Amino acid sequence: MKPPMMESHLADRPLKIGEVSAEAELPVKTIRYYEQIGLLVPTVERSPSGYRLFDKSVLNRLAFIKRAQSLGLSLKEIKEILQVHDRGELPCGEVKQHLEAKVRAIDEQIEALEMLRSQLQGILQGWQEQPSAERIAHTICPNIQP
Questions:
Q1: Is the dihedral of CA 57, 59, 62, 63 positive or negative?
Q2: CB proximity list for 65: less than 8 A, separation 6 or greater
Q3: What pLDDT digit, counting tens, does each position of 10-35 carry?
Protein backbone atom coordinates (compact mmCIF):
# COMPACT_ATOMS: atom_id res chain seq x y z
CA MET A 1 0.00 0.00 0.00
CA LYS A 2 1.30 3.42 -0.95
CA PRO A 3 1.57 6.20 1.59
CA PRO A 4 -1.28 8.77 1.33
CA MET A 5 1.07 11.54 0.13
CA MET A 6 2.27 9.34 -2.72
CA GLU A 7 -1.32 8.60 -3.82
CA SER A 8 -2.25 12.30 -3.92
CA HIS A 9 0.92 13.06 -5.86
CA LEU A 10 0.00 10.43 -8.46
CA ALA A 11 -3.55 11.75 -8.62
CA ASP A 12 -2.22 15.22 -9.47
CA ARG A 13 0.28 14.15 -12.10
CA PRO A 14 -0.54 14.49 -15.81
CA LEU A 15 -2.07 11.44 -17.45
CA LYS A 16 -0.59 9.67 -20.43
CA ILE A 17 -2.80 8.95 -23.41
CA GLY A 18 -3.06 5.25 -22.57
CA GLU A 19 -4.32 6.08 -19.08
CA VAL A 20 -6.87 8.52 -20.49
CA SER A 21 -7.95 5.91 -23.03
CA ALA A 22 -8.48 3.26 -20.36
CA GLU A 23 -10.26 5.60 -17.94
CA ALA A 24 -12.51 7.20 -20.58
CA GLU A 25 -13.09 3.90 -22.39
CA LEU A 26 -12.17 5.46 -25.73
CA PRO A 27 -9.60 4.31 -28.26
CA VAL A 28 -6.27 6.16 -28.28
CA LYS A 29 -6.92 7.00 -31.94
CA THR A 30 -10.16 8.79 -30.99
CA ILE A 31 -8.42 10.83 -28.30
CA ARG A 32 -5.70 11.82 -30.76
CA TYR A 33 -8.37 12.87 -33.26
CA TYR A 34 -10.23 14.92 -30.65
CA GLU A 35 -6.99 16.68 -29.81
CA GLN A 36 -6.23 17.26 -33.49
CA ILE A 37 -9.60 18.97 -34.13
CA GLY A 38 -9.29 21.11 -31.00
CA LEU A 39 -11.74 19.47 -28.60
CA LEU A 40 -9.14 18.88 -25.89
CA VAL A 41 -7.18 22.14 -26.20
CA PRO A 42 -6.97 23.32 -22.58
CA THR A 43 -6.44 19.84 -21.13
CA VAL A 44 -3.42 18.61 -23.08
CA GLU A 45 0.17 19.68 -23.41
CA ARG A 46 3.31 18.09 -24.77
CA SER A 47 6.24 16.84 -22.76
CA PRO A 48 9.74 17.90 -23.88
CA SER A 49 9.97 14.55 -25.68
CA GLY A 50 6.64 15.14 -27.49
CA TYR A 51 4.34 12.88 -25.48
CA ARG A 52 0.80 14.04 -24.84
CA LEU A 53 0.19 14.80 -21.18
CA PHE A 54 -3.38 15.34 -20.05
CA ASP A 55 -4.82 17.18 -17.09
CA LYS A 56 -7.33 15.05 -15.15
CA SER A 57 -10.08 17.43 -16.30
CA VAL A 58 -9.82 15.76 -19.72
CA LEU A 59 -11.88 12.87 -18.32
CA ASN A 60 -14.84 15.15 -17.60
CA ARG A 61 -14.43 16.74 -21.02
CA LEU A 62 -14.41 13.34 -22.75
CA ALA A 63 -17.47 12.24 -20.77
CA PHE A 64 -19.27 15.39 -21.96
CA ILE A 65 -18.24 14.73 -25.58
CA LYS A 66 -19.50 11.12 -25.40
CA ARG A 67 -22.83 12.17 -23.89
CA ALA A 68 -23.33 15.03 -26.33
CA GLN A 69 -22.63 12.68 -29.26
CA SER A 70 -25.12 10.16 -27.88
CA LEU A 71 -27.73 12.94 -28.01
CA GLY A 72 -27.00 13.51 -31.68
CA LEU A 73 -24.69 16.52 -31.49
CA SER A 74 -21.94 16.71 -34.09
CA LEU A 75 -18.31 17.24 -33.16
CA LYS A 76 -18.57 20.73 -34.69
CA GLU A 77 -21.50 21.56 -32.39
CA ILE A 78 -19.68 20.06 -29.42
CA LYS A 79 -16.61 22.18 -30.19
CA GLU A 80 -18.77 25.34 -30.21
CA ILE A 81 -20.22 24.39 -26.83
CA LEU A 82 -16.78 23.64 -25.38
CA GLN A 83 -15.52 27.01 -26.61
CA VAL A 84 -18.27 28.70 -24.59
CA HIS A 85 -17.22 26.64 -21.56
CA ASP A 86 -13.55 27.49 -22.12
CA ARG A 87 -14.40 31.21 -21.99
CA GLY A 88 -15.60 30.59 -18.44
CA GLU A 89 -19.30 30.70 -19.31
CA LEU A 90 -21.91 28.06 -18.54
CA PRO A 91 -22.80 26.60 -21.96
CA CYS A 92 -26.22 25.23 -21.01
CA GLY A 93 -28.05 27.82 -23.13
CA GLU A 94 -25.96 26.81 -26.14
CA VAL A 95 -26.61 23.12 -25.43
CA LYS A 96 -30.35 23.77 -25.15
CA GLN A 97 -30.43 25.54 -28.54
CA HIS A 98 -28.66 22.62 -30.19
CA LEU A 99 -30.96 20.06 -28.56
CA GLU A 100 -34.06 22.02 -29.57
CA ALA A 101 -32.77 22.04 -33.15
CA LYS A 102 -32.27 18.27 -32.93
CA VAL A 103 -35.86 17.80 -31.76
CA ARG A 104 -37.11 19.91 -34.70
CA ALA A 105 -35.02 17.86 -37.12
CA ILE A 106 -36.35 14.61 -35.63
CA ASP A 107 -39.92 15.91 -35.94
CA GLU A 108 -39.28 16.65 -39.63
CA GLN A 109 -37.79 13.18 -40.13
CA ILE A 110 -40.78 11.56 -38.43
CA GLU A 111 -43.16 13.52 -40.66
CA ALA A 112 -41.22 12.50 -43.78
CA LEU A 113 -41.16 8.86 -42.66
CA GLU A 114 -44.91 8.89 -41.95
CA MET A 115 -45.52 10.25 -45.46
CA LEU A 116 -43.28 7.55 -46.94
CA ARG A 117 -45.06 4.86 -44.91
CA SER A 118 -48.41 6.13 -46.19
CA GLN A 119 -47.15 5.99 -49.80
CA LEU A 120 -45.79 2.48 -49.31
CA GLN A 121 -49.03 1.28 -47.76
CA GLY A 122 -50.99 2.74 -50.68
CA ILE A 123 -48.76 0.95 -53.17
CA LEU A 124 -49.09 -2.33 -51.30
CA GLN A 125 -52.89 -2.01 -51.08
CA GLY A 126 -53.13 -1.67 -54.85
CA TRP A 127 -50.51 -4.33 -55.58
CA GLN A 128 -51.19 -6.49 -58.64
CA GLU A 129 -49.40 -9.80 -58.90
CA GLN A 130 -50.28 -10.03 -62.61
CA PRO A 131 -50.41 -6.52 -64.12
CA SER A 132 -51.69 -6.08 -67.65
CA ALA A 133 -49.37 -6.87 -70.55
CA GLU A 134 -49.52 -3.23 -71.67
CA ARG A 135 -48.32 -2.00 -68.27
CA ILE A 136 -45.57 -4.61 -68.24
CA ALA A 137 -44.43 -3.50 -71.69
CA HIS A 138 -44.04 0.16 -70.63
CA THR A 139 -42.59 -0.12 -67.15
CA ILE A 140 -39.92 -1.91 -65.18
CA CYS A 141 -42.22 -2.62 -62.23
CA PRO A 142 -45.82 -1.64 -62.95
CA ASN A 143 -46.72 -1.72 -59.26
CA ILE A 144 -44.51 1.27 -58.42
CA GLN A 145 -44.60 3.18 -61.71
CA PRO A 146 -47.65 5.09 -62.89
A1: negative
A2: 34, 39, 75, 78, 82
A3: 467 899 999 999 999 999 999 999 99
